[in-house]
Design goal:
Helix content is about 40%, strand content about 15%. The protein is of the alpha/beta class. The structure holds S-adenosylmethionine (SAM). The site of S-adenosylmethionine (SAM) has 21 residues, from strand 2.
Length: about 300
């Protein structure tokens, strides 16, 4: 049974945590939305319909151009589509039949497959396995789609701070069906560690310190680092350096200076935290690809 009362847990736990600790406001602020209130606040949540509506929006509102011509890519795209088809066939969504008829998973599947392709291919080239993954600023939770199907995955950690996105992620992760350790449901101590089964940990960005040093092989930060308050961008990159194992990958995908609300020089900042740029394709943003992927390696 899918639990749907996640928003109440978010509100309660956030209040408790704020009373017990000094949590800086910049850890849970979405700077881009603060600058652009016309796009809504992401602070409310009305239930799983929001996940469905998000996917309906992604089915038609924009297209993700693709130039990757590779049979492995085609397989990834098929796998992403098949899993999303299964997820949205869940009885949870049956009452929204009209919305469901508008779903098409190819567009978002292309975005997923590109990310997974670029996240993994340099590691595959150099014979490194990725088993522990952190997705920071997870949106709808889409990165878990292909990672849940990766035979080497052991632990997937997702971090966000906005109630609407956080709650959608929780539903998407429950529907994927791996073991889920949700920070908001834990009354006891919350500890991120490898379990015998593939496990998903979901936690808010004011609890990043719960992730051990050198724990993950890959950090994913797609369309997020330029949208945070500048203090938060600095803080999270420092945290990525701490959390990543030596030689681990920081995967960043964004529009560079085309869309950089906080005006932080992100590439320079990442370099200053001792990462080396390993790969950046020479593609025209928004024409050949939606957001340029960059693979950074922790020195
Ligand atoms: C443009 S969306 C990108 C979503 C996702 N990475 C993707 O590619 O589909 C930005 C994400 O960052 C999250 N976010 C905004 N402010 C945050 C903060 N202070 N801490 C953690 N996540 C934050 C939002 O909730 C949202 O999920």
């Amino acid at each position: 049974m899918v639990k749907t009362d996640i928003f109440e847990h978010f509100v309660r736990k956030f209040d408790e945590d704020k009373q017990q600790n000094n949590i800086p406001e910049w850890t849970y602020s979405w700077y881009w939305k603060e600058l652009n209130p016309q796009f809504g606040s992401s602070k409310g949540y009305t239930g799983p319909i929001e996940l469905l509506n998000w996917y309906v929006g992604q089915s038609s509102s924009r297209t993700y151009p693709n130039l990757i011509n590779d049979k492995n890519f085609d397989t990834l795209l098929e796998k992403s589509i098949a899993l999303d088809q299964r997820i949205f066939a869940n009885p949870l969504f049956l009452e929204y039949e009209q919305q469901r008829t508008k779903l098409s998973f190819k567009n978002y599947g292309t975005y997923n497959a590109q990310d997974y392709f670029f996240q993994t291919f340099t590691s595959h080239l150099f014979g490194k396995n990725i088993s522990n993954v952190l997705d920071f600023g997870s949106g709808s939770g889409r990165q878990l789609n292909l990672w849940s199907q990766d035979p080497n995955l052991q632990t997937f950690i997702s971090v966000d701070a906005m109630p609407q996105n956080y709650c959608m992620q929780n539903v998407y992760y429950q529907l994927i069906g791996l073991d889920l350790i949700e920070y908001l449901w834990q009354e006891q101590q919350f500890e991120v560690k490898n379990h015998p089964n593939k496990t998903v940990f979901h936690l808010p960005s004011w609890r990043l310190e719960a992730i051990p040093d050198n724990f993950v092989d890959l950090v994913i930060a797609v369309q997020v680092l330029g949208e945070l308050r500048p203090e938060m961008t600095d803080y999270v990159i420092a945290q990525f350096q701490r959390i990543l194992a030596p030689g681990g990958v920081l995967y960043v995908r964004d529009h560079g200076n085309r869309h950089n609300p906080n005006k932080v020089d992100i590439k320079n900042l990442i370099r200053s935290y001792k990462f080396e740029l390993e790969f950046e394709p020479d593609l025209e943003d928004l024409v050949q690809i939606h957001g340029i992927p960059k693979v950074w390696r922790k020195k």
